[in-house]
Each structure stands twice: as structure tokens, then as C-alpha cells.
Amino acid sequence: MKILLFGANGHIGSAIRDELLARGHEITAASRTGTGPDRHGLSWEACDVLDAEAVAALAKGHDAVASAVGPKVGVENDEKTILGAARSLIEALPAAGVRRLVVLGGAGSLEVAPGVTLVSTPQFPAQWKANALAQSAALDLYRTVGGLDWTFVSPAALIEPGPRTGEFRVGGDQLLKDQEGKSRVSIADYAVAFADAIEDARTFQRRICVAY
To answer: How many degrees, rounded to 5, is the angle at CA 43 between CA 46 and CA 165?
Structure first.
């Protein structure tokens, strides 16, 4: 597949980029600078994901668009970046003739009990709350869209560097925990699940979550 990836230089975005390349996909990596590592099957373009016109022009001819865009926590405006990216992609992709969209989502909107989301619990980290609420609003926005084959990929409550095992569980709107009550996944395994979602039509127009 020919895939346009936004956020390809970030911690999670770079893992997604490398996973997709390892599978033989052709990647156009979009970043603010338009620069990054030189790899077979990888080209770089400078593009602001908030600019719908520029996104539409760049997306033309691609089979899918993936977004791993995320603001620097405590530095950039979460709502402007996350919701802005969602609105731009929703506007741009139909104009580009691209239906497939897979996006990096947050864990905060996952349910920990019926009607109770992780972000609403007292133990949720304060520094991540604005990001989680913006991700939740973006998910609500995607759910109103009928013209895109979107997938919103939420990680476990804790996502951090770790090995690529290829062994994890995939769920829906509920937070997944292991037998010890922990919710975690490595960035590498999240990238595997993200790449799987791009290739799997069964994830169209739904949120999935990934955890051990």
C-alpha cells in the first residue's frame, strides 16, 4: 500500500513508520520540517496537518492516510492540535479521494466501568487530562463521519518503550487490563497493532484498543 503518515518523527509515529516499512509498504512521511531518516520505500514531505488544503494535495494518490500527530504535553495546545488535525483530515481526505484513515488515539476515553471513562477517575494524571479530553472530542467527531473508513487506535493506560513481541490483545471501548490489573503496552507492539488496523477492513469506523 501507499500510505501517507503524519507525525512520522515522533516516538510512536517513528515506530509506526518503521513497522509499515518492514511490511513492504511505501510511506510518504509528512512532518513540519519534511526531513527524516533516509530509508528504502520512504519519502519525506513538509506539510502542516492543520492545513486541510495542503493535506488534500499531498494525500492524492495514496491508498491510506495514518496520523500519529500529538502535541508536546504541557507545551502545545492539545485541543488545537488534536481536534484541529481531526477536522483537517475529515475535510481533506474526501477531496483527495482517499477513504482509509487510521489515527493515534488516547486511552482516557476508554471505559473502566459502565459510563465511567479513565480520564474521569481521580487517579488520572493531571498533566495528561487536556490531551485525553481533546482525544475524546476527536473520537466523538470521527463517529459523526460517514464518508471515511476511519479507525481510532487507543493504547493501554501506559504506553512506553519496550520489545516488539507481536503478542497483545485488541479490544473495543473498554480499558484492557492484565491479570495483575495493569493496563500497558510497548510502543513497538502498539505500532504492530496500528499497522494491522491499516491492513484490516474489519476495523472500519470503530475504535480499537491495544494492551497486553
So the answer is: 110
pTM exceeding the 0.70 threshold for the entire prediction: yes
Name the CATH superfamily housing domain 2-211. Answer: NAD(P)-binding Rossmann-like Domain (3.40.50.720)
Residue partners of 142: CB distance under 8 A and separation at least 6: 86, 90, 103, 148, 150, 152
Kindly report the average pLDDT of the chain as a whole number. Answer: 95
The CA distance from 210 to 212, in Å, is 7
Reduced to 3 states (helix: H, G, I; strand: E, B; else coil), residue 103 is: strand
Domain locations along the chain? 2-211
Instruction: Yes or no: say if 66 and 5 are a contact pair by the CB < 8 Å rule.
Output: yes
Q: How many CB atoms lie within 10 A of CB 35?
A: 12
Placement of cell 488520572 in the chain: 124
